Amino acid sequence: MKLTRNNKKRFGILWLACLVNCVVFAQHSPTSPFKGKIGKTIAETQESYSQINPQAQVGSPNVVWILIDDIGYGASTAFGGLIETPTFDRLANAGLRYTNWHTAAFCAPTRAALLTGCNPHTVHFGFFANNSYGTPGYDGYLPFEHATIAEVLRENGYNTYAVGKYHLTSPSDVTAAGPFNRWPTGRGFDRFYGYTPSAGAGDQWNPIIYRNTHLEPKDPQGRHFTELITNEALHYISEQKEADPNKPFFLYYAPGAAHGPHQVSREWIDKYKGKFDKGWDWYREEVLARQKKLGVVPQNTQLPPQNPGIEPWDNLTEDRKKLALRHIEAYAGFVSHTDHEIGRIVDYLEEINQLDNTLIVVMIGDNGATSAGGDNGRVLPPKQYTSQERFDRDLSAIDNIGSAETKPMYPAGWAAATNTPFRYYKGNPIWEGGTRDPLIIFYPKKIKENGIRTQYSYVSDILPTTIELTGAKIPEIINGYSQKPADGISLAYSIENPDAPERHTLQYHEMTGSYAVYKDGWKALFPNNVKNRAEDPSTTYLFNLKEDFNEIQNLSKKYPGKVIELQKVFEEEAWKYNVYPLKNKWENTNPNLKKNKTINR
Question: Which PROSITE patterns match (predicted)?
Answer without folding.
Answer: SULFATASE_2 (PS00149)
